[in-house]
Amino acid sequence: MLGSAAPSLALIDTLTEHWAEFRSGFWVTVRLIVISFAVAMVVGTLVAALRIAPNKWLQRLGGIYVEVFRNIPLLVLLFISFAGLRRGGVDIGPWVAGIASLGLYTAAYVAEALRSGVFSVGKGQIEASLSLGFSYAETLRRIVLPQAFRTVISPLGSLTIAMIKNSAIIGVSLLALPDLLKQARIVQARTFETNETFFWAAIGYLLLTGAVTLLIRNLENRFAIRR
Amino acid sequence: MKFRWLGVALTAGVLAFAGCGDDDEEPAGGGGGGTADSTPAATAEKFPADSTLGAIQEKGEITIGVKFDVPPFGVKNPQSGDVEGFDIEMGKAVAEKLGVEPKFIEAISDNRIPFLQDGTADLILSTMTINEERAEQIDFSDPYYIARGRILVPQDSDISGVDSLAGKKVCTALGSTYEATLKEQAPDADLRLVDSYSECLELIQNGAVDAVSTDDVILTGMIIQDDTLKLVGDPLTQEPYGAGIKKGETEVVDFVNGVFQELKDSGRWGELYEEWIGKYTGEPGEPPTINVEEAIELVKNN
Amino acid sequence: MNYLFDPDNWEWLTTGGNFRFILEGFLINLEIAVVSIILALIFGLALALLRLSSVKPVSFLAGAWVDIFRNLPLIFLILYFALGIPGSWKDAWEDAMPSWAPEAFQSGLVLGALMGLVFYNSAVLAEIMRAGILSLPRGQGEAASALGMTYGQSLRYVILPQGLRRMVPATVSQLITLNKDTTLVSIIAITEVMRRGRIVTSSGFFNPIEAPILHVFIFIGFLFVIVNYALSRLSRRLELRERKITGTKLKRVGGLEDQVAADPV
Q1: Fewer CB within 10 Å, N or C, chain A?
Q2: Rounded mean pLDDT of chain C?
Q3: Which of B76, B119, B226 sits opposite C91 (nearest CB)?
Q4: Are B98 and B221 found together in one domain?
Q5: DSSP string, B230-242
Q6: Mean pLDDT for chain B?
Q7: CATH homologous superfamily for C2-246?
Q8: Considering only CA atoms, which of C110, C134, C130, C101 is closest in space to residue C39?
Q9: CB-side exposure of C57: number of CA atoms within 13 Å?
Q10: Residue B137 contacts A where some CB pair is shorter than 8 Å
Q11: Total structural domains in chain A?
């Protein structure tokens, strides 16, 4: 298994002979991640807003969303959103179901990250700003959010990496989207070169997570909080 | 309820089989290496302890990889925990001849060959088609069944055969022979590959795919569960099913061939066919008479 | 909406032993999670110590290992090990399994699942432990050597007990994630709750009651939410207790999956 050293020529061959599959799988994964991220950011912001709203019921609503989507397995969500809804008569396709599931799931984490980012801005600042005559909305926009942004970069980066890893679940589930891991399995089923195919899939995922890690580090340096 | 009736019929069928198991007369002949004796375990031919068959007899059980979700060939009853089906019957015959207990484990399409290669399973009876690529990795018994590749569609579908699959979503299992077949015969079809056929059934039932393509018997199993589905078109391929055996184990191959030959000659094959398959397809079945090499040729000419 | 609340669609829950069948499956998931986290803690500790080693190459290699395994999808690792481990290992597992172990554990496939889960989580926990240890004020380590303790002794009596205590809330958090991740082993044909859910929904062959997928999996999701929510409350309580006792806290980054900041607050 791990011990059998595949001659490096065979390793490269696996990639070149099946380049089309690996490449298309990689891009499907990228598309999945990018769109899900957008969904997660939008929904997550809304939920975070609910969580810090002055109304107790809105807060509870946000709280329920977070607790449900953080504690439920993604695979269960995929079954519910795709097979479950389709059986109920909703004509939802695998892409929409996959992106909705991954996006809504990640949104719960986005909401929490944003919320703690907002809280990291001292209460005193909010009070001072309000007493200076700024409205709640303006306070949010001019004082809280810019500072909160710097704090949330790191956790947002972490949850994006988690999302990249979770995207692999979608291809493997009954949604049957041809993402990177799925394509690697298809090639493996054809050629039985388990080590080689999985190696290249791993490289693909590490490239993606590595890129995000570098981006986060870069952003953190640029917006570093000087205390 | 239709399903309740089926359940009763199946149970009755199984009980009937259990009842008349001992009345079988032993026919002459059989493949090389087998024995003419078919009476219970105590008098099964003993193999030397250092041979594969001997080792299995030592253990007292033979591990057979089967499908758990493909009626009527291999299906696990969730309430009782028992596995049943045509493949299971074949497996039981082999075990009985060897004088051991059969132990059935689940072997999905893409781990059938690895299971044999690494010894997880002694035998694979998992709706596995004999073809050249697989024959390079493992050994096969002579065919015990010949299925035909067909297409399954919903009742109201306008798909009439492999030619009308262009642009349609077609489901089949990862690692099965149909991926290549469909790429060849329907290159413009949109293939959806999944881990098991129960997922394909789910996808066609909820409309996520337009058709499922695989062996007609697997498709028939789906029709059993949902009779709004139907088979269409001419057979795409001929699929001789063989028992999978680890490469190089010629003694085992010969033994299994012997068991199968006996089943065919004694008429037992016909009985099992009728009970598990003919009842649903409504088509008569003949036991295959070809051997492995001929089977490979047959598949090549698909 | 009618579809969702129609009592006919929920009838499966109260008939045919389906409830019990699914619950038993859920128990299997929890068992896998517990076994995995225990093993992952052991290996994770070893990795963390290697990471903190003063021998540069060792710490570098351990660091690379941790970074690679933390950044790969868990399902990728599970599939790789499930497809890649030799049958002899699976056989050894099956022989070693005592008969009182639950049925799902008897299969050699569980070995592949556990390897995937443990390799992944040990890397994650190693990072959590390292954060916990690094968050200790330097004074602790210095005081220990001032008292004449060797590195090993200071680890055992001063650093680890305190550092590891700090990571308890984060570990419970990781257990929540692990619980969810156990559903992934359904993909390598282990009959835990997801598979059982599928069997219940597709049991037209044996079971005349219609069990719609939506309802069955909402139920399964509900089971997970309850258990995981309870665990998250536990984790929060532990963290508050920690804060009260030691007056410090590990910077908790908004309850994220898998990632803990290595910088203390």
Answers
A1: C
A2: 81
A3: B119
A4: no
A5: EEESS---EEEE-
A6: 80
A7: MetI-like (1.10.3720.10)
A8: C110
A9: 0
A10: yes
A11: 1
Please tell me if residue C137 touches chain B, with a CB cutoff of 8 Å. no
Cβ of B137 within 8 Å of Cβ of A189? The answer is no
Helices (H) and strands (E) in chain C, counts: 13, 0
- How many whole angstroms separate alpha carbon B118 and alpha carbon B188? 37
pLDDT tens string C126-171: 988 888 777 777 777 778 778 888 877 777 777 777 777 778 888 8
Q: Which residues, numbered 134 to 163 in chain A, qualify as contacts with chain C under a Cβ-Cβ cut-off of 8 Å?
A: 154-155, 158-159, 161-162
Size of interface B-C (CB pairs under 8 A): 64
Chains with 3+ CB–CB pairs under 8 A to B are A, C
**Does residue B31 surpass a pLDDT of 50?**
no
Domain endpoint, select from B203, B238, B273: B238
Look at B120 and C206 and tell me if their CB atoms are within 8 Å. no
By CA distance, what is A207's nearest residue in C?
C71
Upper half-sphere CA count for residue C189 (Cβ side, 13 Å): 22
Same domain assignment for residues B27 and B122? yes
Residues 6+ apart with CB under 8 A from A186: A21, A178, B174, B179, B193
User: Quick one: CA torsion of A26, A32, A37, A43, rounded to 10 degrees?
Assistant: -170
- CATH number, domain of B49, equals 3.40.190.10
Distance of alpha carbon B239 from alpha carbon C153, whole angstroms: 68
Count CA atoms within 13 Å of residue B137 on its CB side.
18
**CATH code assigned at A147:** 1.10.3720.10
- Contact across the interface for C207 and B111, Cβ inside 8 Å: no
A93 touches chain B (CB under 8 A): yes
Q: Which of A1, A80, A91, A174 to mutate to test the interface with B (most CBs of B within 10 A)?
A: A174
pLDDT of residue B289: 84
- Counted domains in chain B: 2
Residues 214-273 of B with CB under 8 A from C: 224-226
What domain range includes position A121? 8-222
CB B41 within 8 A of CB C245: no
- Read off the amino acid at residue A1: M
Average pLDDT of span B11-27: 40
Residue C22 has pLDDT above 80, yes or no: yes
C227/chain A closest Cα distance in angstroms: 8
- Residues of chain B numbered 168-197 and touching chain A (CB < 8 Å): 171, 174-175, 179, 192-195
Q: Is the pTM of this model over 0.80?
A: no
Give C39-75 pLDDT, tens digit per residue: 999 999 999 889 888 888 998 999 999 999 999 999 9
Distances (CA, A) of A118 to A104, A139, A140, B51: 21, 11, 9, 71
- Which residue range(s) make up the domain with B283? 2-144+242-300
All residues of chain A having their beta carbon less than 8 Å from the beta carbon of residue C184 are 75, 169
With an 8 Å Cβ cutoff, are C107 and B3 in contact? Answer: no
The pLDDT score that the predictor gives to residue B11 is 47
Cβ separation of C87 and B117 shorter than 8 Å? Answer: yes
Residue C53 distance to chain A (closest CA, Å): 24
